[in-house]
Amino acid sequence: MSNYHIKHLEEYYQIYRKSIREPENFWEEVAEEHFLWRKKWDKVLSWDFAKPEIKWFEGAKLNITENCIDRHLVTRGEKTAILFEPNNPDEPAQHITYQQLFERVNKMANVLKSQGIKKGDRVCIYVPMIPELAIAILACARIGAIHSVVFAGFSATALLTRINDSDCKMVITSDGSYRGAKTIDLKGIVDEALESCPGIEKVLVVKRTGGNITMKEGRDMWLQPLLDEASKQCPAEIMDAEDPLFILYTSGSTGQPKGMVHTTAGYMVYTAYSFKNAFQYRENDVYWCTADIGWITGHSYIIYGPLANGATTVLFEGVPSYPDFGRFWEIIDKHKVNQFYTAPTAIRALAKQGSEMVEKFDLSSIKVLGSVGEPINEEAWHWYNDNVGKKKSPIIDTWWQTETGAIMITPIPFVTPTKPTYATLPFIGVQPAIVNEAGEELKGNQVEGRLCIKFPWPSMARTIWRNHKRYKETYFSTYKNMYFTGDGALRDEVGYYRITGRVDDVIIVSGHNLGTAPIEDAINEHPAVAESAIVGFPHDIKGTALYAFVTLKDAGESRIHENLRKEINQLITERIGPIAKLDKIQFTAGLPKTRSGKIMRRILRKIAEKDTSNLGDISTLLNPECVKEIMDEAL
Ligand code: 7RM
Questions:
Q1: Residue with CA nearest ligand 1 atom 13
Q2: Atom 7 in ligand 1: which residue has the minimum CA distance?
Q3: Separation of 492 CA from ligand 1 center, angstroms?
Q4: For the CA of 512, the nearest atom of ligand 1
Q5: Same-domain check for residues 21 and 161
Q6: What are phi and psi for residue 143, nearest 5 degrees?
Q7: How many whole angstroms separate alpha carbon 99 and alpha carbon 423?
Q8: CA distance linking residue 131 with residue 307, whole number of Å
Q9: Distance from C-alpha of 618 to C-alpha of 472, rounded to nearest angstrom
Q10: Dist CA 411 CA 476 (whole Å)
């Protein structure tokens, strides 16, 4: 029996049991057989959730790019590693072979070194979905610099907060980006952000759109001339297993975004292993994940997981709706995609177009369909299954988080029978627990509560960048000796898990994790606004959309509300980005509050969801009288 390739349900249970009973032996075998180590580990695992401190493969030495690139050169040098599909369908696709990727990553790594980047330095990567994004990431990993990718749809304020939080020395960006019919002045956003980023010494600029940009003397440089000069040999920096590989920011329910820190060896082993099995990837398959590399899904399942397996991974620059809603299906047909991984929000938007768009194309290459980012509702699940998978390709509903680094609960295709809206069974090595509010684990089946994980897995984030206290408080303090996910879940009569949504104040809009606090902060910046509270409400396409309850400083504000709504959304676009725009804004005289002054979002959520039959006990409120008024005027 090979632990690396699960073929039927019996085998899943066998391997799963082994991974739980003897986790160290299990992961040691996987690590030994399938990766390239410069030195093996002294100890497979040491952990203490109370501190918390987690170490996997301590003492081992490696470089992840040798595992993702170098070791494939002999057998897969001419195989396509990255298949780039541009935004504009008339622009030819690019097949970047493993050999070419090797040379381009090394050149980029040499450029980074020549511009003063050393092991441990942080490099901010703010690049659209073009090959240079993947190459920049791998180049950082090659020399041991810590990459911090910021989604290229984020605003200048969001960018500068992230640059400053992790003290980045360099930004890699592009002149502009293409998104559907739009061209975005990315460099202009960087320039604005950098007015408030004293730590940035150098900016490397990829030419993509040829737009008119300004280059700041001594700081900004075009990348191409530097690459032309660079050697295509760059020895890999030998890293410790627990050296940081990257920082990736995720919203929290309060305050600043959290810079989740992922380390090298455990992340590599688990993302590679989960990629192989969760997608049942086979040599010569063409795999496509539509996520942006600015999110964890792109890090783990466009770059590291697929490349560690020597796979062909599609990198798509555009959007599902351009030039029309057939774009995804056209790409699947054109490149004969075998595994297709996308988000429920995209599925809902595409389903809205009907099935004609899908039927124009030959999708018979598809073997496995994936879903990630939020709960996939029944309707979307069936549409995906019937129209895209033609009822023959299993859908893997994969539950995981930025913090978990990789897939945690998922069916294994052709192995685990699927069930709509259920992420089904824990992946190998994952020990979930459902706990009640008192922190007691609910054993057995048919239970519902909060989802926790009881035992470390190799790809878990090790800390929050320079804020270990917050890491401990957020994930390890709610329940003793368990990692708390922030999600609610139930376990059905056969032991399948269904994720019911966030139990904190993070709202997931179109698959993007948005914290309430930063959006409220942006609204509150408006001079007319006194206070605001954001909640989610169900939305056909986005899954959840944002509803804002806003109190004005001057209740008799003379400007018409429509203008104010526009100005508030404008502020949000500037501060956070268009993804955080509000769908509904209700102006109200007051917000329901506890006596200690906390806004009771629970009540607002019920009102937004139009579910006011049972608001719970509102007598403890500071101002119960405002609830009726809000209900009467709800949008
Ligand atoms: C990978 C990713 C994490 C949050 C998570 C959940 C929600 C993700 C699913 C899901 C139900 C799923 N990372 N979530 N996948 N909910 N079913 N299959 O999305 O850090 O951006 O978000 O997303 O609430 O805690 S993330």
A1: 401
A2: 374
A3: 20
A4: 21
A5: yes
A6: -105, 5
A7: 37
A8: 14
A9: 32
A10: 27
Is 548 in the same domain as 578?
yes
Q: What is the pLDDT of residues 108-119, one digit of tens each?
A: 999 999 999 999
| Cβ neighbour number for residue 231 with a 10 Å cutoff | 12
Which residues does a 6 A CB cutoff place in the pocket of ligand 1? 250, 295-297, 372-375, 397-402, 423, 485-487, 499, 502, 508, 513
DSSP symbols for 184-222: E-HHHHHHHHHTT-TT--EEEEE-SS-------TTTEEE
Most confident of 4-18, 39-53, 618-632: 39-53
Residue 395: beta bridge partners? Answer: 369
Residue in the block written with tokens 């590989």 = 245
Rounded distance between C-alpha atoms, residue 270 and residue 501, angstroms: 25
pLDDT band, very low/low/confident/very high, at 622 (cuts 50, 70, 90):
confident
Q: Nearest residue CA, atom 12 of ligand 1? A: 399
Euclidean distance between CA atoms 30 and 175, whole angstroms: 42
Mutational test site, ligand 1, from 381, 400, 510, max ligand atoms within 8 Å of CB: 400
Q: What is the total count of domains within the chain?
A: 2
SS3 content of the chain, % helix, strand, coil (to 5): 30, 25, 45
Strand, coil or helix: 578 = helix
**Statement to judge: residues 482 and 515 lie in one domain:** no
The Cα 196–Cα 193 span in angstroms is 6
- Assess if residue 124 is contained within a domain: yes
In a domain, 1, yes or no: no
Rounded Cα–Cα distance for residues 605 and 603 (Å)? 5
Q: CB of 442 within 8 A of CB of 436?
A: yes
Q: Tell me which amino acid residue 25 is.
A: N
What is the 460 CA–ligand 1 centroid distance (Å)? 15
The CA distance from 154 to 142, in Å, is 26
Domain boundary among 437, 459, 489: 489
Q: Express each pLDDT in 61-109 by its tens digit.
A: 999 999 999 999 999 999 999 999 999 999 999 999 999 999 999 999 9
Quickly state the pLDDT bin for 1 (edges 50, 70, 90).
very low
Q: Are 63 and 307 in contact (CB under 8 A)?
A: no
Q: Is residue 470, in this structure, part of any structural domain at all?
A: yes
At 37, list the tokens: 């180590």
Q: What is the residue range of 593's domain?
A: 510-633
d(CA 154, CA 192) in angstroms, rounded, equals 13
| Residues 48 and 175 grouped into a single domain | yes
| Ligand 1 pocket mutation pick from 304, 401, 503 by most atoms within 8 angstroms of CB | 401
Does 518 share its domain with 481?
no
Query: For residue 256, how far is its CA from the centre of ligand 1 (angstroms)?
Result: 20
Question: Separation of 139 CA from ligand 1 center, angstroms?
Answer: 28
Closest Cα to atom 11, ligand 1: which residue?
Answer: 375
Determine contact, residues 104/135, Cβ cutoff 8 Å: yes
